[in-house]
Design goal:
Length: 396
């Protein structure tokens, strides 16, 4: 009995000890929330377990719920932690296919303006569709890559004037880009919409935006195939520069390819532009014209159709002027409007940096941890227990 009594006492003592530790951590967390963006607040948050990665990297996932429940129990919303308003850098980012998103990153105060940095110079190479060796990128410029690079440069230095210029250039392209990718290329009635938007992007935005050439072609092909039967006399014009694979022979003798026999043909897609493969049928005579001298076979390929899908030597896109890279303080009054537009205080998407935690990001933007979790819960691959540099988090 004495041994049992000791065991019970030890168990109760452990329970009480754990309870005291949890209660203390909870009190420290509440206190740190009231001391937002201060050294004491960060220290209290660390003691509360924010950085205790050995147990649970994002301990606020649990504690944030408790804080919200307590606040709701008192009938009051959580305070704007510390009352500090964060000024983000705004960079418009195209979504997976077509959605424009504002990318927010905290600025350093005061802003130190510089003409450019290695990060923004890399963004300029992407804008020119060049790699680090000055060779053309095979898929041309991708607006999202330029956007991400500019956002990263601005996160490192909010006064990077070249990064601001790049962000604004992409922002100016965004309406036409959205119009182009939101239109359904498979709908013949929207083909002209796609062609008009694509031509506008190539003339007003960047002539090296190869996606515009590709979407114009896919819309043209879809419109051509919508006519039954398709006019095969324009097949070479519509398929020039593309890659085809042959499928089964649809009619005629198995051992002989007569000119009038039909063969299943697939236009290879371009997944980088979210353009899928297209399957249709052509006569052997037309395939011979499309693939001269290739000795093509049934169920084989891919074969390259002569011609160009993308131009061989597209002109250089617009580049920043000396005025674009001059700090606002050195410009005439009103000359910094473009730079100021890029740093407008709007909510958006924060790119996770090394050493970040969800609790730290929530404090930084003056929101509750649970609000940050809820805003990103529907994001594919989001795990509140694990975030890593480069991830994009929506700021509500």
């Amino acid at each position: 009995m004495e041994q049992i009594g000791k065991s019970v006492n030890n168990f109760l003592g452990s329970v009480v000890g754990i309870g005291l530790i949890c209660f203390t951590s909870f009190v420290l967390l509440l206190a740190s929330a009231q001391l937002n963006r201060s050294r004491l607040g960060d220290l209290l948050a660390g003691v509360a377990g924010e950085t205790a990665r050995t147990a649970r990297t994002e301990s606020f996932v649990y504690w944030g719920k408790v804080v919200n429940e307590v606040a709701n129990g008192f009938g009051q919303p959580l305070p704007n932690l510390g009352g500090v308003v964060t000024t983000p850098i705004i960079v418009v980012t195209p979504g997976p296919v077509s959605t424009a998103v504002a990318t927010a990153a905290p600025t350093r105060a005061p802003v130190s303006y510089v003409r450019s940095t290695a990060y923004s110079e890399g963004g300029l190479l992407l804008w020119r569709a060049l790699d680090t060796t000055q060779k053309p990128l095979p898929l041309g410029v991708k607006l999202k890559d330029v956007q991400d690079q500019a956002a990263f440069a601005l996160n490192q230095n909010g006064g990077d004037l070249l990064a601001i210029w790049l962000a604004n250039k992409v922002k100016a392209c965004q309406p036409l880009y959205n119009q182009m990718v939101q239109a359904n290329y498979q709908d013949p009635t929207q083909a002209n919409t796609i062609r008009t938007a694509a031509d506008g992007l190539l003339t007003q935005c960047n002539p090296r935006l190869y996606e515009a050439y590709a979407r114009k072609r896919w819309a043209t092909v879809a419109q051509w195939l919508n006519t039954i039967p398709p006019d095969e006399s324009v097949a070479l014009v519509n398929l020039a520069g593309t890659r085809l694979t042959t499928g089964e022979k649809l009619d005629g003798p198995a051992r002989e390819n007569r000119p009038q026999d039909f063969v299943e043909v697939t236009l290879q897609g371009i997944p980088e532009y979210s353009l899928p493969s297209v399957t249709f049928r052509l006569t052997v005579a037309t395939l011979n014209q499309l693939l001269p001298g290739t000795n093509w076979q049934i169920q084989s390929g891919p074969y390259a159709v002569p011609g160009e899908l993308f131009p061989a030597n597209p002109p250089e896109p617009a580049l920043p002027t000396e005025a674009d890279l001059t700090p606002p303080s050195a410009q005439a009054p009103g000359a910094s409007a473009q730079a100021q537009e890029a740093v407008a205080p709007n909510p958006g998407v924060y790119i996770v940096q090394s050493g970040d935690t969800l609790y730290k990001i929530a404090r930084q933007f003056g929101i509750s941890p649970q609000a940050l979790i809820d805003a990103n819960r529907a994001t594919v691959g989001f795990n509140p227990d694990f975030i890593q540099p480069g991830m994009q988090l929506r700021i509500p």
